[in-house]
Amino acid sequence: MENFLQVRLLPFDDDLNIASVACAAKQSEILSAKSEASAREKYAAWKTLENAASEIFSVSPEQISFSRTEYGKWCAEGFFFSLSHTSNFVAVALSNLPVGVDCESRCAFEKKASNGRLNAAKLLDRILTQEEKKSGSFSPERLLEVWTKKEAAFKYAGKGAYSPKELPIASFADKTATFECGDVVCAVCSDAVELLQVRLATQKDL
User: pLDDT tens across 21-74, in order?
Assistant: First the structure.
């Protein structure tokens, strides 16, 4: 198989109906989500994954074998994928090479950067390495881009505990790309990043 990298983006409404997915273990996880909003996001992401994999590999969702790694990450037999969701929006990345994807609402992130609980100074300490802090000022928009890239890179690596302030962005700069969809900023990390294709799905596709 030739190298490929595809990211599917899906915005959806609060009226999204949670139906069933082919993977029984994932269905149980969706139904046991802590809130209805979380369940909708998990369902939308997984259903988008099933649809994309079925289309790309010409198989039914029931033919795809899913399992978890020792770090708890979902994986599939025959391809790599990564999922992310935020505020009624999901991003799903598929590739024949390791991949990580992240999406964040700009509005929600900027609120974090301006409130008293988690303000801009705290975000800087949480996200940036010591060297990155010395590289210049970081606006909320620039900080959001760094945050999504680091999240995507961590998912690409697929192991360990996430500590963005210990993850220098320069170490994976040639593997990452960022793009936007409305209010949402997305980042993807992969060895096939130069082959990136982005597709916008709709709620009707689920």
Answer: 999 999 999 999 999 999 999 999 999 999 999 999 999 999 999 999 888 889
Closest CA to 85 of 178, 32, 11, 145: 11
- Report the chain's terminal Cα–Cα distance, integer Å: 27
What CATH number does residue 158 fall under?
3.90.470.20
The secondary structure of 16-81 as a DSSP string is ------S-HHHHHHHHT-SSHHHHHHHHHHHHHHHHHHHHHHT--GGG--EEE-TTS-EEETTBEE
Q: Which domain holds residue 74?
A: 5-205
- Which pair of structure tokens corresponds to residue 168? 């220098």
Query: What is the pTM for the complete model shown?
Result: 0.92
Is the Cβ–Cβ distance between 102 and 156 less than 8 Å?
A: no
Return the structure tokens found at 23: 């993977």
Q: CA nearest 7: which of 199, 204, 193, 201?
A: 199
Question: What is the count of structural domains for the chain?
Answer: 1
